[in-house]
Specification:
Protein name: UPF0340 protein H7B90_11775
Pfam family, one: DUF436
Shape: globular
Strand content: 15-25%
Helix content: 25-40%
CATH topology: Rossmann fold
Order of helices and strands: HEHHEEHEHEEEEE
InterPro entries: Antibiotic_NAT-like, DUF436
Oligomer: single chain
Largest sheet: 9 strands, mixed
CATH architecture: 3-Layer(aba) Sandwich
Number of domains: 1
Family: Belongs to the UPF0340 family.
CATH superfamily: Hypothetical protein TT1679
Number of helices: 5
Radius of gyration: 19 Å
């Protein structure tokens, strides 16, 4: 395993880094109880190794702890993304999957197929299952695991004050509804329509 020292050694513990970043995402995206947040993480990258080569349960435990600190305050619902060997399926409570009508698939994530993070989450949730896909309200990606396939359109990037978790690059975003209608559209009750034009609706 190779470790980079380019980001300094005085950073806070991993759980604290995750808590800070996720708190910033929740504030930027105005996340509330019940919102879905997809979490992708390479524990190998956090250690400074190439993704998929050095998964570690102890790193997963710290990531999970940081997420739980924020989840317990806000009440969002995390979905833990597996690695490519399970087609980036997601670990969620079965109750949530059934409530949302998501397609449940059959597999149990392990370190070599699913990844250490998803495997850890699966073993620490009550009645977990895997779902094939979902559209989350926001997401956090630790180590460039590519969570975009599970985000609703349109994704709005958030620049974290802590751009690294351990040695892994951190990317995160929340989503917003599409703005439709063109130049005459109004997007809030307080806005006034623009000048009348030759075109009408209705």
């Amino acid at each position: 395993m190779t470790t980079s020292h380019t980001h300094g050694t005085d950073r806070p513990p991993i759980a604290d880094q995750v808590e800070r970043a996720l708190s910033e995402l929740a504030e930027a995206g105005k996340l509330k109880a019940g919102r879905i947040v997809v979490i992708g993480c390479s524990t190998s990258e956090v250690q400074g190794a190439r993704i998929g080569t050095s998964g570690a349960e102890e790193i997963a435990e710290r990531i999970y702890e940081g997420v739980e600190r924020v989840r317990s305050r806000i009440g969002f619902r995390p979905a833990w993304q597996c690695c490519e060997h399970l087609n980036r399926a997601l670990v969620v409570p079965r109750e949530l999957a059934e409530e949302k009508g998501w397609t449940i698939v059959s597999a149990v994530p392990v370190r070599k197929a699913g990844g250490s993070m998803a495997a850890y989450a699966y073993r620490h949730l009550d009645d977990p299952c895997l779902v094939e896909a979902l559209q989350a309200d926001a997401g956090i990606d630790i180590g460039e695991t590519l969570i975009g396939m599970h985000l609703r359109p349109v994704a709005v990037p958030v620049r974290p004050s802590v751009p690294w978790i351990g040695e892994a690059r951190l990317t995160m975003a929340y989503t917003r509804p599409k703005l439709i209608g063109g130049e005459r559209a109004v997007y809030s009750l307080e806005e006034r329509p623009g000048p009348a034009s030759s075109g009408t609706c209705g």
